[in-house]
Write a structure and sequence with these properties.
Length: about 240
């Protein structure tokens, strides 16, 4: 039986590129080719809320990035226009970007599993990303959970970072992986969200202070220089020396 020391959570791991940190990881430049990232979201705005600042920071730091950006609902309607506009804002500096907006029915993902699974299988044939951003496993929204589970089913030798989405359900947890953000990046994230998603502005939670509050809390937890960060769950990671 272990003592108290054995029960302490592991120290959080922080990715940052410009500032010294007690515990920091960076991605080495790939010997050839760009960094490939895959962003997965059940609904238009999920990716941006969960990891929009990280995407902006990554693209500001590295020019050679290819991005697949997949939204699983809203295709064919006004939400698709919003999703595409937003992806254009967040991915403006990407070397290449491929944006797909599927039209699976919002709220019904657990009952549409076959079609969504096939979409994931198609994706696996198309891209082998260096980083996958997806919903977190413990998310209480049924659509979010389906996307998270299928991400792990499909991408088995990839770094998966699960992002969080604040909501009524009250399912925020204790993330273990942080990306500190400069204040200007955080402001750009919030500005882009409000510019792109006009249909959400009437929702009482879709406000700048919601997004800033979570960035601020995660910034405290990761001792971010500007006091702001996005947080993720990294359930598995390997390291090469
Ligand atoms: Zn969502």
């Amino acid at each position: 039986m272990g003592g108290l020391a054995d029960q302490r959570p592991a120290a959080p791991v922080v990715i940052r590129s410009r500032h010294p940190a007690p515990c920091s990881l960076t991605f080495a430049a790939r010997p050839a080719g760009p960094l490939r990232i895959l962003c997965l979201g059940a609904h238009a705005d999920d990716i941006e809320i969960g990891c929009g600042g990280t995407i902006l920071a990554l693209l500001a730091a590295r020019r050679n990035v290819d991005c697949h950006w997949i939204v699983f609902s809203g295709g064919g309607g006004p939400r698709e226009r919003e999703a595409r506009r937003s992806a254009g804002l967040f991915l403006a500096r990407a070397r290449r970007r491929q944006i797909v907006v599927h039209s699976f029915r919002d709220g019904f993902f657990p009952y549409l599993g076959g079609g969504i699974k096939e979409a994931f299988e198609d994706l696996a044939r198309e891209v082998s990303p260096d980083i996958v951003f997806t919903h977190t496993r413990e998310d209480r929204h049924q659509d979010h959970r389906v996307v998270s589970d299928l991400t792990w089913n499909t991408f088995r030798s990839h770094l998966i970072l699960e992002y969080e989405v604040p909501k009524y359900d009250g399912d925020l947890g204790v993330p273990n992986f942080f990306v500190p953000l400069r204040a200007a990046v955080a402001r750009a994230k919030i500005r882009h969200l409000h510019a792109a998603f006009g249909s959400q502005r009437s929702k009482r939670w879709f406000t700048p202070d919601t997004f800033h509050a979570l960035l601020r809390l995660r910034g405290i937890e990761s001792a971010a220089p500007d006091g702001l960060a996005e947080a993720f769950y990294a359930r598995k990671a390997t390291i090469a020396f």
